[in-house]
Amino acid sequence: MTEPPLVVITDSDLPGDEPERILEAAGLRVRRASCRTAEDVAEAARDATALLVQWAPVTAPVLARLERLRFVSRLGIGYDMIDLAAATARGVAVANTPDYCVEEVAAHTIAMVAALARRLPVLDRAVRDGRWSAAGDGAGALRPSKATVAVIGFGRIGSLAAAHAAALGFRVVVHDPNVAEEAVRAAGHEPAGLAPALAAADIVTLHVPLTERTRHLLNGESIARMRPGVLIVNTCRGGLIDEGALAGALATGHVAGAALDVFELEPLPADSPLRGAPGVLLTPHAAWYSPDSLAELPRRAARQIADFLGGRTVTSIVNPEYAAAREGGDA
């Protein structure tokens, strides 16, 4: 008798066993591992048909060793830990979980935008230090109707964050080369190229995937071209910002404040200069979280494995070109 396909959960710090229950109910075998390195993944998943991945690296050499692999489901929206080109070339479908926390991240983003615009981190610290000066410590606070928010990336989260910002009265400019300018205008915002958007912004908020093209999108050069006193928000991926360049710009005051939920290294190292930088609001990669999103994420990520292996359509596959490679390999 042929064994059912094996699904390996490479890593997960989410509570509960709902993925196992969903996958086993679909007639699949499940193995849970605690992978941290690429070699861990290769060893744990050598006979897997599908992977459920949170943070473990699924690299090209790993994929080459997983000869039975057909599908990778990401516990989350970003998929920069998976070598998408290598997966596509091998005919392996990759799917993320794109909308389990859209509301949460957009709300977290706009909370950070408002906190910086109204100088809340600085005012809070001032009160705790015994000062009581709205105009002194609140210097630089913005009136929304006279300030511009640049939204870089206009996908599910970016577009909702833009709508929230506009509802507060901010002028919103949007940069996303993958979205038609007409769609941006139809939403009530102004389309712009990257350089003009950054130059116009009082506040910049990032909502793009981390790729080789977007890594350190905000670096010493691009930050220097922003207007003095700019504020920066990142709830997307830490690698979008050169943290050394940001820390330097915060020290000089060219960047007046930053609100960061994601970092190049997580947890944020104890010696990171961002910890002590003035006007900085830090949260622990928490923008995605609510009890609702926590419950929804593993459920959706597991169900799409069951759907794919059951021959049903999975709409969140991010590399539809995989099918041509698989057909070519099967010919």
TrEMBL record:
Belongs to the D-isomer specific 2-hydroxyacid dehydrogenase family. Residues 17-319 form the D-isomer specific 2-hydroxyacid dehydrogenase catalytic domain. Residues 110-287 form the D-isomer specific 2-hydroxyacid dehydrogenase NAD-binding domain. Transmembrane segments: none annotated. CDD domains: CtBP_dh. GO terms for molecular function: NAD binding; oxidoreductase activity, acting on the CH-OH group of donors, NAD or NADP as acceptor; transcription corepressor activity. InterPro entries: CtBP (IPR043322), D-2-hydroxyacid_DH (IPR050857), D-isomer_2_OHA_DH_cat_dom (IPR006139), D-isomer_DH_CS (IPR029753), D-isomer_DH_CS1 (IPR029752), D-isomer_DH_NAD-bd (IPR006140), NAD(P)-bd_dom_sf (IPR036291). It holds the Pfam family 2-Hacid_dh. GO terms for biological process: amino acid biosynthetic process. This is C-terminal binding protein. Keywords: Amino-acid biosynthesis, NAD, Oxidoreductase.
